Automatic annotation (TrEMBL):
<keyword id="KW-0067">ATP-binding</keyword>
<feature type="transmembrane region" description="Helical">
    <location>
        <begin position="100"/>
        <end position="120"/>
    </location>
</feature>
<keyword id="KW-0547">Nucleotide-binding</keyword>
<feature type="domain" description="ABC transporter">
    <location>
        <begin position="380"/>
        <end position="614"/>
    </location>
</feature>
<feature type="region of interest" description="Disordered">
    <location>
        <begin position="1"/>
        <end position="37"/>
    </location>
</feature>
<feature type="transmembrane region" description="Helical">
    <location>
        <begin position="199"/>
        <end position="217"/>
    </location>
</feature>
<dbReference type="GO" id="GO:0005524">
    <property type="term" value="F:ATP binding"/>
</dbReference>
<feature type="transmembrane region" description="Helical">
    <location>
        <begin position="61"/>
        <end position="80"/>
    </location>
</feature>
<protein>
    <submittedName>
        <fullName>ABC transporter ATP-binding protein</fullName>
    </submittedName>
</protein>
<dbReference type="InterPro" id="IPR036640">
    <property type="entry name" value="ABC1_TM_sf"/>
</dbReference>
<dbReference type="InterPro" id="IPR011527">
    <property type="entry name" value="ABC1_TM_dom"/>
</dbReference>
<dbReference type="InterPro" id="IPR027417">
    <property type="entry name" value="P-loop_NTPase"/>
</dbReference>
<keyword id="KW-1133">Transmembrane helix</keyword>
<keyword id="KW-0472">Membrane</keyword>
<feature type="domain" description="ABC transmembrane type-1">
    <location>
        <begin position="64"/>
        <end position="346"/>
    </location>
</feature>
<dbReference type="Pfam" id="PF00005">
    <property type="entry name" value="ABC_tran"/>
</dbReference>
<keyword id="KW-0812">Transmembrane</keyword>
């Protein structure tokens, strides 16, 4: 469960998230028409940066402003040390105090301008990166709506979600800081060097002596801190995963009285995270003092050599002051680049995972745009259909049957027999490997998925409701439906009476999990939603499983009206509900082992007969127990 959480990034996280792995991660080599998992391309930092740049480039006007301001800000930074040297040589040493005050005031104005530029620059950059990320988030979310179900099946949902949240967040952190930083660093390094060389060649060489030392120290600490941050991320992932599991499994934790054990387990993980966090902070905390030491070493060298040169009149105190400041300016970007390295790495890794998601095949990619399907009569035929969710394990084996227009087809059989799989194929949630499925003689692969699904109405086992009002939830079936139509559908689904009893009626707000409704009530809502959608073909997957017998009778009546004239597929465990079906398909191990009407199958005294009589006896003895 926590696998996805292991991808979680800490804000200060150094290394990129672990490469995608796990079942389906690499995709399945597939024959034509089969799902081929998302292609994982080899890591290509250059391509990732270029693509990220293409997103940024859409804001080129803002980028240009930022670039101009950065150049201006950097130039101000470059002139300041020169002015300091001038202050010493031209005003301080000759005791020209009025001139010194004038220069200081000028410098003050200069610094103020620098701060103002920095502020405007970060304001523009924030807006720019914000809009870029908005576009990126939009693209990712849009992609989620188009990905085939296999992608969601083959990896933890949290792992996909973390691409839309953590990974984009990483890109965001970095975009904001590094774009300006990189440009500033570049200008500052080149500009400082030029100014230093103009002032004094020997002192410039002396100040450069410490740079290799600084570079070595920084890269060593950076690589150590990357490992430490990665460890911290993993522990954070484990902690997040554990919290997520225990929150969603609260009922089970409480029912089995595992609160104390759970807290103990949490303490262990929490302790590990704490230790990893301390280690990461200690290692990364070494960067600052080490840099200070090397900076000061450079300072000492320049002061010593510069002092000796000034003593021999080979240079002036003002030049030494300027050079000391330029040397600090030169070291700072190198230092900062080292610090930014982690952030950049993390952003590139994040961007790579986001782009990898954006590059996945959508389920509509290979669609032929066929002419609109005529109004559907509802003849559904399965011709020798074979299918497996993965290439290695076939589930359905050569399933064939014919549903005539308006027929009620019941799918029965033991759990895992493949009943839901059959309807999954009809809706083209998954594409078949062999055989053909036709609706009114047209192969469903020739019908656009959107169009096909508009003809099908589903009431699923999982009665899913969205956060929003009851009215909105029912209207999900047909967005343009009027309030009256919504209420009429609810009446037909027998949901109207319980909705009206709620304090806010149809305007009652539901939570995403629908926890303020019972499971049965949620199911009634989803039935109303399907009734409103008014589909030509109906799929009812255990639709009445959570409804009491009395409500079930009402629903059966409503459904009978609804099913009239529509081909309907009903998956039911309670065989009493499908006695009137036109065709009962008995599935076992992915094959149809018997088919016929209730009467025919009872007369055959086979699998169905045994299933039915055992259920019938059970319910008979249960009701005898109740009355007795
Ligand atoms: N998304 C999936 N990915 C991989 N395997 C799956 C997936 N969905 C179902 N299966 C497998 O396919 C087989 C058939 O499942 P299916 O849901 O069709 O059975 P069912 O007859 O509807 O069962 P039940 O009555 O319990 O709902 C099972 O072995 C199941 O493990």
């Amino acid at each position: 469960m926590s696998a996805h959480a292991n991808q979680t990034q800490s804000p200060g996280g150094a290394a990129g998230p672990p490469a995608l792995s796990g079942p389906g991660g690499q995709g399945t080599p597939g024959a034509a028409g089969r799902f081929v998992g998302p292609k994982v391309k080899p890591r290509n930092t250059y391509a990732t940066v270029r693509r990220l740049w293409s997103y940024l480039y859409r804001q080129r006007a803002g980028l240009l402003i930022v670039a101009l301001l950065t150049v201006l800000g950097s130039v101000i930074g470059l002139v300041s040390p020169y002015l300091m040297g001038k202050a010493v040589d031209d005003y301080l040493i000759p005791h020209d105090y009025p001139g010194l005050v004038q220069l200081c005031l000028f410098m003050l104005g200069f610094y103020l301008l620098g701060s103002l530029i920095a502020w405007v620059q970060s304001f523009v950059m924030n807006g720019l990166s914000g809009r870029t990320l908005q576009t990126l988030r939009h693209d990712v979310f849009e992609k989620f709506q188009q990905l085939p179900l296999q992608v969601f099946d083959s990896r933890p949902h949290g792992e996909l979600m973390s691409r839309a949240t953590n990974d984009i967040e990483n890109v965001s952190n970095s975009l904001n800081q590094t774009v300006i930083q990189l440009l500033t660093s570049l200008i500052t390094i080149v500009g400082s060097l030029v100014m230093m060389l103009r002032l004094n060649l020997i002192l410039t060489v002396v100040s450069l002596l410490c740079i290799p030392l600084m570079w070595m120290a920084t890269s060593k600490i950076t690589s150590l801190s990357r490992i430490a941050f990665k460890e911290q991320q993993q522990e954070l992932g484990a902690l997040n995963g554990f919290i997520e599991e225990t929150v969603s499994g609260q009922k089970v934790v409480k029912a089995f009285r595992r609160e104390a054990v759970t807290v103990q387990q949490f303490q262990d993980i929490n302790g590990k995270l704490n230790r990893a966090g301390i280690k990461a902070q200690i290692v990364s905390g070494m960067v600052g003092p080490t840099m200070n030491f090397v900076n000061n070493l450079s300072f000492a060298l320049i002061s010593a050599v510069g002092g000796w040169m000034a003593f021999h009149d080979w240079t002036t105190i003002g030049v030494i002051v300027s050079l000391l400041n330029y040397s600090r300016q030169l070291n700072r970007p190198i230092n900062e680049l080292a610090n930014q390295y982690n952030l950049i790495q993390s952003a590139i890794a994040g961007a790579e995972r986001v782009f990898e998601l954006l590059d996945m095949d959508t389920e509509y990619r290979k669609e032929q745009t066929t002419p609109a399907v005529r109004s559907v009569q509802g003849e559904v035929v399965f011709h020798d259909v074979s299918f497996g969710y993965s290439a290695e394990s076939p589930i359905l084996k050569q399933v064939s049957f014919t549903a005539k227009p308006g027929d009620q087809i019941a799918l029965v059989g033991p759990t895992g027999a493949g009943k839901t799989t059959i309807v999954n194929l009809l809706t083209r949630f998954y594409d078949i490997h062999a055989g053909a499925i036709t609706i009114d003689g047209v192969n469903i692969t020739q019908i656009e998925k959107n169009r096909l699904r508009s003809k099908l109405g589903m009431v699923l086992q999982d009665a899913y409701v969205f956060s929003g009002s009851i009215r909105e939830n029912i209207r999900y079936g047909r967005l343009e439906a009027t309030d009256e139509e919504v209420e009429a559908a609810a009446k037909l689904a027998n949901a109207d009476s319980f909705i009206k009893r709620l304090p806010h009626g149809y305007d009652t707000i539901l939570t995403a999990e629908g926890s303020n409704l019972s499971h049965g009530q949620r199911q009634l809502l989803t039935i109303a939603r399907t009734i409103l959608a008014d589909p030509e073909i109906l799929i009812l997957d255990e639709a009445t499983s959570s409804i009491d017998t009395r409500t079930e009778m009402h629903i059966q009546d409503a459904m009978k009206t609804l099913m009239k004239g529509r081909t309907s597929f009903i998956i039911a465990h309670r065989l009493s509900t499908i006695r009137d079906a036109d065709l009962i398909l008995v599935l076992s191990g992915g094959q149809i082992i018997e088919q016929g009407t209730h009467r025919q199958l009872l007369a055959a005294q086979g699998f169905y007969y045994n299933l039915y009589t055992s259920q019938f006896q059970k319910s008979a003895s249960a009701s005898a127990g109740e009355t007795g």
